[in-house]
Amino acid sequence: MAAISKTKRTLITVAVAAAFGGSLFVALRGQQADLKQERQAQQEAAELAALQPLQGLIALDVEPFFKDPRVIQRLAAARLPVSVSRVGSRDMAAKLDGAGRSGAPDFFFPSGVVAANQVVDAARKANLPVAQLAPFHTPMVIASWEPVARILVANGLAKPLSPKVYGLDMAALTQLMLAKKKWKELKDAGAYEVSRSVLVSTTDLRRSNSGAMYLALTSQALNGDVVTDRPTARATALKLAELFKRQGYQENYVNGNFDDYVAIGMGKTPLAFIYENQLVSHALAKQGVSADMVLLYPQPTIVNKVVFVSLNERAKALGELLANDAELQGIAVEYGFRIADTARFVKTVQATGLGVEPRLTQVVDPPSFELMAEMIEVVAQEMAQ
Predict the structure, then answer these.
(1) Strand partners, 58
(2) How far is 54 from 108, CA to CA, in rounded Å?
(3) What separation in angstroms does the CA of 238 have from each of 235, 245, 301, 325, 377?
(4) How distant, in Å, are the alpha carbons of 130, 189, 309 from that of 66?
(5) Handedness of CA 360, 364, 368, 369 (dihedral sign)
(6) What is the dihedral of CA 184, 186, 191, 192, to 10 degrees?
(7) Which of 27, 91, 161, 346 is 20–30 Å from 235 (CA)?
(8) What is the Cα–Cα distance from 200 to 194, expressed in whole angstroms?
(9) Is the dihedral of CA 242, 246, 248, 254 positive or negative?
(10) What are the C-alpha distances in Å from 209 to residues 179, 216, 239, 305, 336?
């Protein structure tokens, strides 16, 4: 009996061990299946997130770029589609007030470092992660006409650099405008002998970044250096306010004075302060420009950077794609922007007959955004009187 009992015990032990082993195998297999399903769910969630458009607030300058079907297709292929809304560059920082992490857009794309710095400052105050880079840029220039440019040369205000391209003594021109000189009072003014004051047409600096950049540039021209303190900023703005007041009505959007330059011509707009990319993109779209259209490059000038400000890693990847992807960079050139590859930009423009300055060697920065805000406020107050 003892032997039988021992045999039974052995068989029972074996049976229990087999059952436990089978259960363990099934359990482990189930766990592996669960892990596989979990990983698959995570992958599907990541893929779904990659299909969600990044939400961005952009300047008017880059709106046509983002509407281009080639850009839309390229961003979709990179799994970085976007949904963008146009907002004034200087209004962007306010969009972060009280927004929190969940209410903030994924990225901003303002025109100019002043507006970009405001956004970055607001993001940091809201404890949001922030990074910035400038995928493309464009210098501030004055669009003019060959007869007008020759008058400026005759009066020592400009010099020819290449066909249809002139360097402009911004300090001398600023002093001439403040002295309220009229075109007909200038030497050899026969081609434009009118009783109008010599003034550069701008957009409304209270609403438009390009108008504010004109204030920044003339402040440097008047002082001989970048304005760096509040008393100088206020005093300078008071002097320069008349350059805006005497223009009369000013458009409050970026293409306002440029549209007048193109459509109405020299009689209405002998000198228009614009972004270089406005005339370049116009020339590329029309496959040429009027024979007497020229560009005056202020010496020094300000380069306007279109700054991409990202608030998360996926948006940061979008900014890097815009800055480094050859196809997207080429499309940006078609909209008149300069990129790191200067030769590519110059070659693209050459076919239009428009002259551009290949390399900009005299460039200054605008004042800090605090001082710019102060100067804009002073000029705005003077214009309201």
Answers:
(1) 86, 109
(2) 11
(3) 5, 11, 21, 45, 10
(4) 22, 44, 16
(5) negative
(6) -40
(7) 91
(8) 15
(9) negative
(10) 26, 10, 20, 11, 17
Q: Determine if residue 54 is left, alpha or beta; phi over 0 gives left, psi from -120 to 50 gives alpha, anything else beta.
A: beta
Position 35 scores a pLDDT of: 77
Query: What's at 68, amino acid-wise?
Result: D
Q: Is residue 1 pLDDT above 80, yes or no?
A: no
Is 367 in contact with 227 (CB distance < 8 Å)? yes
Give pTM, 2 decimals.
0.84
Cβ–Cβ < 8 Å for 210, 140: yes
Where does residue 164 fall: left (phi above 0), alpha (psi -120 to 50 degrees), or beta otherwise?
A: left
Q: Which two tokens stand for residue 133?
A: 């880079």
Q: Which range (132-136, 140-144, 255-259) has the least confidence?
A: 255-259
Neighbours of 363 (CB within 10 A): 13
Sign of the alpha-carbon torsion through 253, 256, 259, 263: positive
208 three-state secondary structure? coil
Say whether pLDDT at 375 is over 80: yes
202 contacts: CB under 8 Å, gap ≥ 6: 208, 210, 211, 214, 244, 247, 250, 257, 273
Answer whether 136's CB lies under 8 Å from 306's CB.
yes
Asked if 152 and 303 touch (Cβ cutoff 8 Å), the reply is no
Tokens for 271? 């000198």
